Amino acid sequence: MNELKDKVAIVTGGGYGIGKEIALAFGRAGAKVVIAARSEKPMQETVDALKKIDTPAIHLRTDVSKEADCVRMAEETLKAFGRIDILVNNAGIAGPTKRMPDMTLAEWQETIDINLTGAWLAARAVLPVMDKQRSGNILNISSGAGRRGYPMRSPYAASKWGMIGLTQTIAGEWGARGIRCNCICPGPIEGDRIERVMRARAEALKVPYEQIRAQFLSQAALNRMATEEECARVALFLVSDASAGMTGQTLNVDAGSIMN
Question: What is the pTM of this model?
């Protein structure tokens, strides 16, 4: 398990969920890991878990929607570890579950600012470093909502579609400089977050929670949700030399919910 030996990886939103599992997978593969997020306690818990497996790790309080925070994230990572090899743009919010006329501009803007603009700002902050190194990997975490429209979740879907376009653009713009950029589209992922999403949807549609959960499961060829660990395994593949010939690609991790 040394696919990422001596590599330095930043994982935004790495305090819990998919981000935490990616950070742990990278640590087990030999990387030094920086957790960048807004909430102190989850970040510290991830760093503690990383140190238990002898992974050099720090955390940086970062709001990716703020340019200054992203610049500081890159600067502090360089101070701590001397280079930046990997950026995982995982930070994101679910946004509102409402029809468009019931949604405020502020709700729309917050979701776009964190999910999409935040990924752009974080990538912009690390790209000059990767360019000097003539190597680097950026991994964007989109969603199944980036593959098809998602009624009542317009800002979330728009932001996640945008992540795929951003991925292809970074790949084309920086490939000749030795920098790769790929993307993962997780489907519904078993855990607390999808439970909150399903319950919010059930409440908004005024239908039983069990009906919403059954709809989610019925879409998956494997008749189950994917897991955070399964996403982390794909993330490790995409930032390691095992995928050296891949850039600008988007892979679904959704138990067969969307097959394209």
Answer: 0.92
